[in-house]
């Protein structure tokens, strides 16, 4: 039976490649329109569009998946299921009722419903997360779940190392769900948490917080969003890698650039910045940064 796939991000592109290599190869892939990106504002295709073209899959990029035209294109394939993964736009009625819709969500639902489940799990210090395959409903990731599997979050995991593992697992679970049609079970009421979208304030490291928490923020936002720390001159410095230290910070200044190390005093402990990125510059080691920016630190 035919499937239709809705997705946008690199995470969704990994899942699409697995689905295309199965008996449930999509008859149609729907993603967001190309958008300007980067400093040059060059028109750039979403990762799923690039993957779909490479796989030779039919591609649709409507302004709204809920438009009559987009719904007609989806319906024309008579899909047994519409699979949704990191699509990035709200799917509304009547499309929700017109098709049987499976949603791949990278968390152990009902924990971390919402836009940034991978980042929020790392930020919270969770030791495990996972993937849930659920029926898409009008509620926020609140539909019944048919498959769920756990995965460990390693102490040094970043978004960049954890998300691909979750996408690989998610692709396998999605193929299983389509092949086996497991029973759906309503999510429990207990344990619901929400993974709010990452905002500007989430990126800025608040040095009144414990260093261990700030280390998790850096890992959660690396490499796709990026954490930042404020400098004394009012500028900000991107942080690509950091390490919490259990120093006695009574002897450490706000910044301590001694011995080629960049250490930030925190509410509890200290945070050593290992990789940083000046505004308009490239990511570099803290030692390289300090050689040219000692006065700023």
Q: Give the total of beta strands.
A: 17
Output mean pLDDT: 93
The largest sheet is: 7 strands, mixed
- Name the helix and strand elements from N-terminus to C-terminus, one letter apiece: EHEEEHEHEHEEHEEHEHHEEEEEEH
**Count of alpha/pi helices:** 9
Describe the global form.
globular
Structural class: alpha/beta
Distance between the termini: 61 Å
Instruction: Work out the radius of gyration.
Output: 22 Å
Stretches where pLDDT falls below 50 for ≥5 residues?
A: none
Quaternary organisation:
single chain
Strand adjacency order, main sheet: 5-2-1-6-7-9-10
Summarize this structure briefly:
The protein is built from nine helices and 17 strands. It is of the alpha/beta class and 297 residues long.
């Amino acid at each position: 039976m035919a499937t239709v796939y809705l997705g946008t991000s690199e995470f969704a592109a990994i899942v699409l490649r697995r689905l295309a290599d199965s008996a449930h190869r999509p008859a149609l892939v729907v993603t967001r329109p190309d958008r300007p990106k980067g400093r040059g504002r060059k028109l750039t295709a979403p990762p799923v569009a690039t993957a779909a073209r490479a796989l030779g899959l039919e591609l649709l990029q409507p302004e709204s998946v809920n438009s009559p035209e987009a719904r007609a294109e989806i319906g024309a394939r008579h899909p047994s299921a519409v699979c949704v993964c990191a699509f990035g736009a709200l799917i509304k009625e009547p499309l929700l009722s017109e098709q049987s819709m499976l949603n791949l969500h990278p968390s152990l639902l009902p924990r971390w419903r919402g836009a940034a489940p991978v980042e929020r799990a790392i930020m919270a210090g969770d030791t495990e997360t996972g993937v849930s395959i659920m029926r898409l409903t009008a509620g926020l990731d609140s539909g019944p779940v048919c498959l769920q599997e756990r995965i460990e979050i390693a102490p040094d995991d970043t978004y960049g190392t954890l998300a691909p593992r979750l996408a690989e697992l998610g692709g396998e679970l999605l193929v299983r769900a389509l092949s086996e049609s497991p029973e759906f079970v309503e999510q429990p009421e207990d344990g619901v948490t929400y993974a709010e979208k990452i905002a500007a304030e989430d990126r800025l490291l608040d040095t009144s917080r414990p260093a261990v928490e700030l280390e998790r923020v850096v890992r959660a936002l690396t490499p796709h969003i990026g954490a930042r720390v404020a400098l004394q001159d009012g500028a900000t410095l991107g942080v690509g890698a950091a390490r919490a230290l259990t120093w006695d910070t009574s002897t450490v200044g706000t910044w301590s650039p001694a011995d080629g190390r960049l250490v930030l005093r925190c509410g509890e402990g200290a945070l050593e910045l290992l990789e940083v990125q000046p505004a308009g510059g490239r990511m570099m080691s803290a030692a390289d940064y300090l050689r040219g920016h000692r006065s700023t630190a």
